[in-house]
Amino acid sequence: MQNKVFSVLNYVGHKSKIIETINQHLPQTINGVFWDMFSGSGVVGLSIDHLSVEFVDSNEHLQHFMQNLSDEDFIKKTETILSNYGFTNSSRTPRSEYLKDPKIGTCTWHGKTVPNMHLDALNKGSYFCLLRDYNAGKFSNLEKACCYYILTIYGRNSYVSVNKSGGLSGGIGPLDFGPRAKKKVKKYQEIIELKKCSFHAGKYSDFNPGEDDFVYMDPPYLASGFSYGGWADKEEKELLDWIDNLPCDWALSNVFISGKKSNDILQAWAKTKTVVHIKKSYRKWASKGKSSATKKTKENQEVLILP
User: Fold this and answer.
1) How many CA atoms lie within 13 A of 63 on its CB side?
2) pTM for this one?
3) Same-domain pairing of 240 and 171
4) In this structure, what CATH number is given to the domain that contains residue 236?
């Protein structure tokens, strides 16, 4: 694997930290196309050595972002929007300078009052102003893609969700566009330039992989307890039936158990498959404001399932 990438959107649960394990169980040679279904930020499809990759995700906002990420003006346009809306930009101004602002205040950490190291207090107004304008349809093309990126990386847990009306919903988080974020964008641009990539917005079942292809899937995890896009038992069973009828080899990332929740449907189906257990836990900030910053860790029984 020559081009391991770390998620440009820093999603909780992205596959950057376990991509080597996943890659060990993927074919070394694929005669057709590598399909990255439920692709998210595209970590798996961009990290593997195979050059022809089709990325499929139902999130139209995300796929519009991915389609425009390789634009040579992406970073320049992003920084222009950040400046126009008054966001912090620690890729230009050191984070330490922003932290001198009295608006930052303090937070409680393990029972002690300490200086707050988050930038949410400085970016909150800008964030919700941009979110309002985005949902009002003010942006298009590259500018819209940059706005989606900003709303994600500045969002709580580096995430912005799609609401029932098709717009975006989110809350402010502690991070901003820093040197590392800029480096990730440039890395993605370099790899996309080297590959033959296509990004599609749609449902996995709308596409028809061929017998020479390989399909990798990372769907919503039923055991997580979150109804991503309405994902429930019915959707889980439909996906597993679709997998059983694929004409090619495949790999499915998922979790059997997350915390106290178990995916019994998946476990029963996987009894006739090859199951690789992956040890990994994910951390997230469990804080809605600067006064209660703590970290939570949930133990998952994560698996990679193969035929």
Assistant:
1) 18
2) 0.90
3) no
4) 3.40.50.150
Q: How far apart are CA 293 and CA 307, in angstroms?
A: 43
103, with CB counted inside 10 A (0-12, 13-18, 19+), is exposed
Picking from 216, 226, 221, the residue whose alpha carbon sits closest to that of residue 246 is: 216
If asked whether residues 32 and 85 sit together in one domain, one would say no
Neighbour tally for 276: CB within 10 Å: 15
Q: Which residues contact 202 (CB under 8 A, 6 or more apart)?
A: 56, 58
- What tens digit of pLDDT does each residue of 213-233 get? 999 999 999 988 766 667 999
| Helices (runs of H) and strands (runs of E) counted in the chain | 10, 12
Q: Which helix (H) or strand (E) holds 236?
A: helix 233-244
Q: Return d(Cα 225, Cα 230) in angstroms, integer.
A: 11
Q: Given this model, what pLDDT does residue 237 score? A: 98
Place of tokens 């912005």: 160
Tokens of 192: 């996309």
